[in-house]
Each structure stands twice: as C-alpha cells, then as structure tokens.
C-alpha cells in the first residue's frame, strides 16, 4: 500500500520526539507510568474481589438448605467467576455486549 502525502506528513511529525522539551517528555513518561501502575493495581484488586465472591458463593452453596439459597449462592459464584474472567481478559466485559 502506498501512503498518501498526508500520512507521510503525520508520521514525520509523530516520529520527532527531539522537538519536545525535557519537561514535556518527563510529564508524558510520568503519566504513562502512573497509568500502567494504576491499571495493574486495579486488575489485581478486581481479580481478588472476583475470587472472593466465587469462594463465598461456593461455600454458601454447600451450606445452603433450600433451593432459593442454592440459587443465590450459584448466582454469586458465577458473578465472581465472570468478574475474574472479564478482568483478566478471558471473556469480553459486559460493556462490549451493549
């Protein structure tokens, strides 16, 4: 594919980081690092909440004495399993279904 002249101009402007000042580069790297750290912490926390919900649902299922309680515990366990799988990217999140 042959790039159009406007594509060539855009790529030349994007590949010139030498035109940025040290303060701008520092701010960009700092924001990117902060975003990466917060993303990792969020993934770990959401995965932990999902695992806890799953374990609570499974333990409630074995301690349940009625069909209503069993149904609720299965729903909690499946919700925790879904939350963990969606957080880790195994299945698409619910916002992509709408």
TrEMBL record:
Residue segments, region Disordered: 1-21
Record's keyword terms, sorted: Membrane, Transmembrane, Transmembrane helix
Record field: transmembrane: 36-62, 68-91
Lineage top rank: taxon: Archaea
Protein name, per record: Uncharacterized protein
Higher taxonomy: Archaea, Methanobacteriati, Methanobacteriota, Stenosarchaea group, Halobacteria
């Amino acid at each position: 594919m042959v790039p159009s002249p406007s594509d060539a101009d855009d790529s030349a402007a994007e590949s010139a980081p030498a035109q940025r000042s040290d303060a701008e580069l520092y701010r960009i790297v700092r924001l990117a690092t902060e975003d990466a750290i917060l993303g990792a912490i969020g993934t770990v926390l959401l995965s932990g909440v999902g695992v806890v919900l799953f374990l609570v649902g499974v333990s409630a299922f074995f301690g349940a004495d009625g069909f209503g309680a069993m149904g609720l515990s299965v729903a909690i366990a499946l919700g925790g399993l879904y939350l963990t799988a969606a957080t880790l990217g195994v299945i698409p999140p619910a916002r992509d279904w709408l």
